[in-house]
Amino acid sequence: MFTDECRIALRAPDGRERVWRKRGERFLPITTTQTVSFHGGSIMVWGGVSSDARTELVIVDNRLTATRYIEEVLQEHVMPYSGFIGHDQFLLMHDNARPHVAHYVEEYLEEVGIQKLQWPARSPDLNPIEHVWGMFKRKIKSSSKPSQTLNELRNAALAAWDSIPQVDVRNIIQSMPDRMQAVIRARGGNTRY
């Protein structure tokens, strides 16, 4: 199971808008735009994918700590999923974020018998879920009615996650050996992926 967190903002993060104006028009209402601090707010979500299924999307309110990661993610979503797959065949991939690599989390995973895939630092492009997050964000962005509130954004996120076809997730996961070989051939440099 490939897992990760993803942040989604109500407004575009760059906030750039180009406006062409004539001399003397600098502060006219037609040539100015109001801005929203912190992109209007954002939510953090967690999800896990494999070739055959995916977890429910978890809305992570506030900051994810090691304790919350165990209680709200590992116990509630990863453990039941690993039982479904079979503990002896289950392998967890999570990145090197602090809550994931905390000693407390390491002890918990060892205690419950979940093996994890060691992951190289700063290599999100090799994690299939990053590509799933890309599809996920495009689905949210292409919504006919953009979210205006955080509650609407939560609902849009849940709907977008459920609408991603599992065959697309499987195709991404199956493409990873080719992606990894390309990275090896490029000695960690840029690839066509």
TrEMBL record:
Query: Entry's Gene3D superfamilies?
Result: Ribonuclease H-like superfamily/Ribonuclease H
Instruction: Specify the Tc1-like transposase DDE domain's residue ranges.
Output: 2-151
Q: Output the Gene Ontology terms for molecular function.
A: nucleic acid binding
Which InterPro entries does the protein's record reference? RNaseH_sf (IPR036397), Tc1-like_DDE_dom (IPR038717), Transposase_5 (IPR052338)
Q: What is the protein name stated in its UniProt record?
A: Tc1-like transposase DDE domain-containing protein
Query: Which organism is this entry from?
Result: Parnassius mnemosyne
User: Which lineage is the organism of this entry classified under, starting from the top rank?
Assistant: Eukaryota, Metazoa, Ecdysozoa, Arthropoda, Hexapoda
